[in-house]
Amino acid sequence: MTPELILMMLAAVLAAVVLYTFIGFIPGTDETSVLAPVTLAVVLAGAPPQVVLAFFIAAIVTLNLMNGIPTALVGLPGGVMSAPLMEHSLLLRGKGLASDTIRKMAVGSAIGTLISIPLSFALAGLLAPMADPIKNRAPIILAAGAVLLALLGKNRILALVAIVPMALMFEALPALYRTAGIIPEDKKISISFFLGITVGPMLITLLELLNAKRRAGLPHGDRTKTALLRSGFTSQALMPGKLISPSEGLWSTLMAAASTPLFVLSPVGLTFLLGEASVADQKNDPVRRSQRAVTVMSALTHSTYLAGVIIPLVALGIPISGVSAGPAGPLFNAPPVYDLTDNLHHKLQMPGFIAAVTVGALISVAITYVIAVRWSSQITYFVMRRIPHEAVLALFVAFILLLAYIDAGIPNIFGVLLIGVVCGALNRLGVNYGVQFMTLYAAPGIVKALASLS
């Protein structure tokens, strides 16, 4: 590893920390919609594989912690992964313990990161000898992954029923483009479809504004009011032992370790289930129950995400988890730079993976830990007053439209619009991102299997 490459990795990690510190403080930003487009831009810019991986790891470590801070301070979920923390954070906020909650989140995130990374590499090493048989059955595994994630979702029956129609849509649009001469016969389109899925829920919300009745039913004339406690603006101790109790540290370690082998499952679902399991014995003291819950759940948000990226990437090279098929999708498939037969899995050896993940995770967790403990209230105050949420979302939408045009011209902009509307509506009905992304990757195998039945 050359000094120039190390400097590039450090620069990428610092850029990810700065960018996602501010994005993470903006309530309502979805992890996939803000991680995938920027990661794709880094890949398409021609960054070396180690730099891409270090950037992404730093981004998810930073974003997952920072997303929890608006939840604790102002009662607004920063992202999907912070939703399981809402109930406990609101209870602690009501008790005047918001600043204490953030410090516990920071320690939990550090525990989850430090526990998950070595375990993930160990599990990846165990799976690696079985990589070829697994990849030879990739179509079956991807389809099974979509079914599994559907069964773990909110609306199981609809999610199962939606898999085949979505697969047909994902395969039909490129076939139509080839028939019309819009793209060559050998070209595949996936990344703009991938981003169409990410923007779907937001697109549905925007299109609803064109409906007069829907628009009239929205709140008018009032601004959302939030309050920040003065105690959050004072300097705080940094030693983890002074911020959490021994039982909170023990449960965070155990649950982070338990979640790592379950990397194929939904991170949100695991965070909720294992987090609540860790406080099952704390029924008589709501405050201590919630304090342990936010610490453990913060550890789980990091352990589930990191395992969901590291294990499929190192051992297999195909996206077989919700995280790898969703936010980490550009690491596996970003034409023309990466595809499922030539991506980071094929370009890096184990030392390269370990170096990139270690640099990205340790630097970002150290910086974000200090930021969360010392300056979370100040940054929240700045972001809430100075950075419009709409501007951030508009930037990502514009980027997605640009990539749609690059993939297949103006017709594909409307194709991505179609995918966004369909997937956004299904998402609102309970068909989660994991099912949709896994179906996108499984679509060729599903359609081929359907054709063999006719």
UniProtKB/TrEMBL annotation:
Q: Looking at the keywords, is Transmembrane present?
A: yes
Where would you find the membrane-spanning parts of this chain? 6-26, 38-63, 69-86, 107-128, 134-152, 157-177, 189-207, 250-275, 296-320, 353-375, 387-406, 412-431
The DUF112 domain sits at: 10-432
For this protein, the record's Pfam families field holds:
TctA (PF01970)
User: Could you tell me the superkingdom of the organism this chain comes from?
Assistant: Bacteria
Keywords from the named record: Membrane, Transmembrane, Transmembrane helix
Identify this protein by name: Tripartite tricarboxylate transporter TctA domain protein
Task: Look up and give the organism this protein is from.
Answer: Actinomyces massiliensis F0489
